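sorry to bug you again but im stuck and you know this stuff better than me. what follows is a protein written twice so to speak, once as letters and once as C-alpha cells for the fold. id like you to explain what the C-alpha cell line says about the fold, in plain words if possible. anything you notice is useful, everything is just below.
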Amino acid sequence: MSARKDRPMAEEIAAVREEVTKPPDYRVLIHNDDFTTKQFVVEVLMGVFNKSAAEASEIMWHAHQSGVGLCGIYPRDVAETKVSVAVEAAREKGYPLMFTIEEE
C-alpha cells in the first residue's frame, strides 16, 4: 500500500475521534421523608452506593436537614441501576424512600 492511500484513512479516523464525546454523568439524589428510618438510609447508602459509615451518615444528615442529599455521580445506566436496587430494598421494608436522577 502506498502512503497516499493510508493518509485519507488516518484523517478520517482522526475526524471521527474528534466527534466522539463522553456521555454525561448523572447525579443520584436521595430525598428525605418522615417514614424511612435513618439507620435504613445509612444501610442503603453503604450497601448500594458503596459509602463508608461516615460518608453515609453525612449524606443522611444532609438529606434530613435540607430535604435532599447527593448519593453520587455515575454514568446513566449505573445511576439507574443503583436507584432501582435501593428503591426495591426500601419497598421490601415498607419504606417510601425516594431517589431522583439528574444530569450533571
Q: What stands out?
A: The mean pLDDT is 91. Strands lie at 25-31, 68-75, 98-103.
